[in-house]
Amino acid sequence: MKRLLFFLLLLFSISTFAQENTQTNEILAQPSKGKCMVYIARRETAAMLVKFSMYDGDIFLGKLAHKKYIAYECNPGQHVFIAKGENTFYVDANLEEGKIYVMDMKVKMGVISARVSLDPLDKSHKKYEKEKKKFLEFINKKKGELLTLDEEIEDDTDNEGTLGEEGLSKRMLKFQEMKEKGKKITKITPEMFFD
């Protein structure tokens, strides 16, 4: 009887583990050949009525509402992801071809509106497996937007998109300035892909 119980427990454990890996591939959109995929999820309910503008450099990705996500297919290499709320938050990313990267949008109440930050899911973090599971459950339940480079959306509220010196937008000039001054900027490295 003990052997049978042990065998059933072992069989259940193996099937659960195999199901989790299959589930990841079924839930998440896989990048096309020569591309990579970036998921930006807003799982929190803070500032429910506020939508935050998301950019890849000067490319407007859309406005992210609470309990929504954006799945963005892009070219591998260097990217600057920008979230705009009461503040402007930057993520300096180096993305690898064929990989999926995940960022979680965090919202805190500010003075006038809400402040925003982007936290990459990182395998080296001790809570990675727990956050990965929560993220997959969220994606499985919620509707998001799948964006490709072919779809450019007009941002009607942006006043930092105007070109300044050197042909860069104000928000990208601010990013360059922060980088030159050695300010802390969140980074995504190629090894931080979602698995």
Overview of this protein structure:
The two termini are 38 Å apart. This protein has a 5-stranded mixed beta sheet, with no helix packed on it. A 5-stranded mixed beta sheet has the order 3-2-5-6-10, with helices on one face. Mean pLDDT is 80; it is low at 4-22. The protein is globular. The protein is of the alpha/beta class and 195 residues long. It is built from 3 helices and 10 strands. The protein has helices at 2-27, 128-141, 170-180, and strands at residues 36-42, 52-56, 59-64, 68-74, 77-84, 88-95, 100-109, 114-120, 145-147, 186-188. The chain is 26% helix and 33% strand. It has one domain (30-192).
Structure in a nutshell:
With 195 residues, the chain is an alpha/beta fold. The chain has helices at 2-27, 128-141, 170-180, and strands at residues 36-42, 52-56, 59-64, 68-74, 77-84, 88-95, 100-109, 114-120, 145-147, 186-188. It has one domain (30-192).
List the helices and strands and how they pair.
Blueprint: H1 2-27, E1 36-42, E2 52-56, E3 59-64, E4 68-74, E5 77-84, E6 88-95, E7 100-109, E8 114-120, H2 128-141, E9 145-147, H3 170-180, E10 186-188
